[in-house]
Amino acid sequence: MKQVFWMTAGCVAGWLTAAALTDRSVEAFFGMAGPLAAAVATWLAVERTWRRDPVQVTRLLIGALFVKMLFFGVYVVAISRVPGIDLAAFAVAFAIFFVALYAAQAFLLRRLTTVQPS
Questions:
Q1: Are 7 and 43 in contact (CB under 8 A)?
Q2: What HEC string does 6-69 produce?
Q3: Taking Cα atoms as reference points, which of 118, 102, 111 lies closest to residue 11?
Q4: CB distance 7 to 33 below 8 Å
Q5: Which residues contact 6 (CB under 8 A, 6 or more apart)?
Q6: What is the pTM for the complete model shown?
Q7: 46-59: per-residue pLDDT in tens?
């Protein structure tokens, strides 16, 4: 749960920075919200699955990949239909948050699955 807090805090800080530096805070928010929602949901499921049966984490991640592909497709189409959204600014924000969150998840997953010496 601590990891979810830090992912969310990092995203909010990034969004606030983008809002302060540009006039595209709405696009930055929508570019953050989708990837953050997917990353948080995935991480909560990974933690729960790891506690129950660590062997099932890979299966969960494969299933989550297909769900997230569908989610992101619907999400991007829905955002593209919002009037007044600058799609280029949205795409840049989306890509930055997407890459940053999935890099963070990769790091967290490696940390979760690495055997700690006693």
A1: yes
A2: HHHHHHHHHHHHHHHHCCCHHHHHHHHHHHHHHHHHHHHHHHHHHHHCHHHHHHHHHHHHHHHH
A3: 102
A4: no
A5: none
A6: 0.91
A7: 999 999 999 999 99
